Amino acid sequence: MEPTGTAVSSTINLVKTILGAGLLAIPFAFKNDGVLVGTLLTLLAAVTSGFGLFILSKSSKTLINPRNSSFFTLCMLTYPLLAPLFDLAMIVQCFGVGLSYLVLIGDLFPRLFGGEANFWILISAVVTVPLCCLKKLDNLRYSSILGLFALAYLSLLVVTCFVHGTLFTHGYERYRGEVSWFKVYDAKGLMSTFSIIVFAYTGSMNLFSIINELKDNSMKNISLVINRSISISTLVFLTVGITGYLTFGSNTLGNIILNYDPDSVWVHIGRLCLGSMVMLSFPLLFHPCRIAINNLIVWLEIQLRKEPSITGEPENEMRSDRGEATPIRLSIEDEDRESLSGLENGDIESANAEEIQIHRGTNVEHTPFPDFRFYIITAVLLLSIYTIALRIRSFAFVLAIVGATGSTSISFTLPGLFGYKLIGTDSLAIGEMVSPRDRFYKRCSGLLAWYGVGIMAFSLYVTLKYGTD
């Protein structure tokens, strides 16, 4: 498909992927953390998540054709036998959050218009199903714009209530609790809400689609999209988090909307915006989930055929009789070492130890996704999500586990592993010295992977210890 994405449309989709219903829980995190610590954690999450997106983009540039980049192609280059585990993490993350959005729809709309939760969940299919059938992420830019307008209204509602009800009102102390500026208000609460801020920036599931669809997919343009998206998201998180918290202080609830007058027409509009935003966010999670399922199918096909790309056997890059190809890996052989004579010993040792892996040929990098499979996966996946959504009402604990494992994997651990393994290999493969900047990115990638493991362990511990309290 011809790339149609622009920096603006890509930024819109990435911002909408990051900003979701979780935005309304940020003030609650600030309640427990205090203004200073909450702000510092938000900035930490912004930097680490933004760096993770950058490293994924940088890793995609080691492919001959970066427009065919995906978690799957990079996994097949670096850790081919673990590729299904990584795609499974993506599926669990996107499926779980998408399911929570449908459950939220069933909770929101009956309060606005009456009726049963299941009725509104089914009605939402009128909007979500057509959007889920679109093949390109860039085609969702218009629905993302509508979703951003809904988010803008919710943010404006929070800020306006702060300005009108707190800054220009003298009696706000009667409904506002204690405000903590510099100290942590609740240590236990800090631990249990830490993941809210860290996972708020999860947007890597759609990054490769953005890279593949950008007309100008140079690192400069991709970095521009990432920097703009992270900056806009951070501004919104801090604005809503701080003003929402300063409005209600220690009385701030898990969903800031619940703190406002339920009979207010402005709050009713806010609930409508929230429901609309959730419906328009669902396709953005469905898109990467469907791709991950296709990747699992392709991986299984490769295993069943016992393709040499998995074992590293040199014989064949493509099977022309099938018109299909699979990733291959090439190592630097003895005869190639002379071309690396200008490299430092550490580079050569690292190159040999890691068996530098690269793609050769555009077709080899492509992950096949025929139309019939696209529509079958779409139908089965939609049917599964909607069937489960009609049968459950709350699964907060399960969702917390999903976030702790899925979000950390695709936001920190995987980008770190890819960056550590791939950055600089394109230079080594052609006999050039790895630049100091790439060396720095490589080391930071390793730290990011360990950071992700640490966040995952901490989040799982807190969820298991406090999740059912």
TrEMBL record:
GO CC, one annotated term: fungal-type vacuole membrane
Superkingdom of the source species: Eukaryota
Gene Ontology molecular function: any one: L-arginine transmembrane transporter activity
InterPro entries, per database record: AA_transpt_TM
UniProt KW Transmembrane helix keyword: yes
Keywords: Membrane, Transmembrane, Transmembrane helix, Vacuole
Protein location: Vacuole membrane
Residue ranges constituting the Amino acid transporter transmembrane domain according to the UniProt record: 4-456
Topology class, membrane: Multi-pass membrane protein
Pfam family, one: Aa_trans
Ranges annotated as spanning the membrane: 12-30, 36-56, 77-105, 117-134, 146-169, 189-208, 229-248, 268-286, 372-389, 395-423, 444-464
Family of this protein: Belongs to the amino acid/polyamine transporter 2 family.
UniProt name for this protein: Amino acid transporter transmembrane domain-containing protein
Species annotation: Torulaspora globosa
Phylogenetic classification of the source organism: Eukaryota, Fungi, Dikarya, Ascomycota, Saccharomycotina
